[in-house]
Amino acid sequence: MAFAATDKVVLGSVAFAVFWVLAVFPAVPFLPIGRTAGSLLGAVLMVIFRILTPNQAFAAIDLSILGLLFGTMVVSVYLERADMFRYLGKLLSWKCQGTKDLLCRICFISAISSSLFTNDTSCIVLTEFVLRIARQNKVPLHPFLLALASSANIGSSATPIGNPQNLVIAIQSGISFGEFLVGVIPAMLVGVVLNALILLVMYWKVLSVEKDEVISEVDMNSHQFSPATMSHLTSLESQGLNPTADAIDQIKNRTSSREDAVPVQSMMEVEGDLANGGNRLLRKMCVYLVTVGMLAAFLVGLNMSWTAVTAALVLMVSYSLLVFFCGMFITVEGFNRTGIPSTFWNLMEPHARINHVSGIAVLALVVLVLSNVSSNVPTVLLLGARVAASAAAISPIAEKKAWLILAWVSTVAGNLSLLGSAANLIVCEQARRAQFGGYTLTFWRHLKFGVPSTLIVTAVGLALVRG
Questions:
Q1: What is the DSSP track for 169-216?
Q2: Per-residue confidence (pLDDT) for residue 188, from 0 to 100
Q3: What's the burial of 164, exposed, middle or buried (CB within 10 Å: 0-12/13-18/19+)?
Q4: Got the DSSP string for 131-161?
């Protein structure tokens, strides 16, 4: 696709720039309207500037992705209400043999929970558990916060429901849940191990201070998490974008009372029963059974979007994240029509073919840079179809592998810097504003670990991704 007319290129770029600025910096002084409104503004500008017709704008919205995103987020919220993450938190301190053991546990628990319940959800819920354990046992905080955030990003790469960009890739590529899992999980498992080893090597002396002591268990009942908090923070993140400290404060204030927390309606009155007590054990079992049924349906190859929606309807409805994604789909489609992404890819495509090691390296570098500049979901939306088309000219297996490489690199890219993933920002802000003594994880401290970890984990994982 060649460049569009000059006026459309300029106006389309302006609309996309407005979307990008408000997505990455939602509290900009000249237009402090937030991410969701910013996404809709970008979409409206694409129509006003006549980059897209209204019908083309509506057609750009991918209902399959919205359905899958909606369903998996709803199920995650109800799993939190059923204490799933409280049990995961207890595993962090149960018979823990020291700081190094604790760090490894955080890495693996964070990775596994993120692959099933999304990376940001895991970070929102587990950060305070990690802080409590570290504070109670007087161990340094930053290695454990880095372990939580980075492992959550790596772990989320393994499944289509681990993060929003994987949802996009799974729907657009037609790769089933099982194929996706088999293709990426070797890279994910090795990546988590490598990430843990890098942390141990970098912070061995710091972690050796308490090496002979057993980590004492933390009272996990001392803090209650609200699914409203989790869902609203998730909606701020959406595709690897970053919630602000003020937004987190507002959410916590709004969710101090469950009745005022979020306009959630249960089609089977599950929330009312959970909130009022009732047979709590039975309600928990229902949530777990629904989740197991959803995952089983994914694995046997049923339509992922309708499976997730069905599971969600058994539990509850509603999210503003869907509005954000609608605006983003329209804005990205309008930017595509300017011809800029196509022209860029035409320049890179001869050097980024995945039938050569050098081509894979170039492709990975392009995705790594774009994911940190424009965030991972827009990168996938802009380049996904083009990367797949280039690989399809080689073979169907190459096409599938290209999609999985895109999923792996765009996800692990979030570990490069503190701003690369909302999971990082969530951990940072939760730690800084912890009610029992905050801690600031600085940009440079994260970068010192993030750069070597991202480059090593990405490179090794590329060799293990299977088409």
A1: HHHHH---HHHHHHHHHHHHHHHHHHHHHHHHHHTHHHHGGGTTSPBP
A2: 96
A3: buried
A4: HHHHHHTT--SHHHHHHHHHHHHHHHTTSTT
Q: What is the DSSP letter of 162?
A: S
Provide the CB-side half-sphere exposure for 22 (13 A, CA): 24
Token look-up 């009745």 returns: 259
Res 140: pLDDT: 80
339: DSSP letter = T
Q: Are 366 and 352 in contact (CB under 8 A)?
A: yes
d(CA 385, CA 31): 33
DSSP one-letter string for 239-283 = TT----HHHHHHHHHHTSSHHHH---B-TT-HHHHHHT-SSHHHH
pLDDT given at position 208: 78
401's tokens: 């592998």
What pLDDT is recorded for position 57?
Answer: 87
Of 192, 152, 170, residue with least CA distance to 425? 152
Per the model's pLDDT, the better-predicted residue between 414 and 423 turns out to be: 414
Separation between Cα atoms, residue 377 and residue 24, nearest integer Å: 12
Q: What are the backbone dihedrals phi and psi of residue 96, each rounded to the nearest 5 degrees, phi first?
A: -75, 135
Most confidently modeled of 187-191, 244-248, 339-343, 387-391? 187-191
pLDDT, mean of residues 355-372: 89
Q: Which of 413, 411, 362 is nearest to 169 (CA)?
A: 411
Task: Please write the tens of the pLDDT for every residue from 122-148.
Answer: 787 788 778 877 777 777 888 999 999
Nearest to 349 by CA among 10, 1, 16: 1
Measured distance CA(271)–CA(268) in Å, rounded: 8
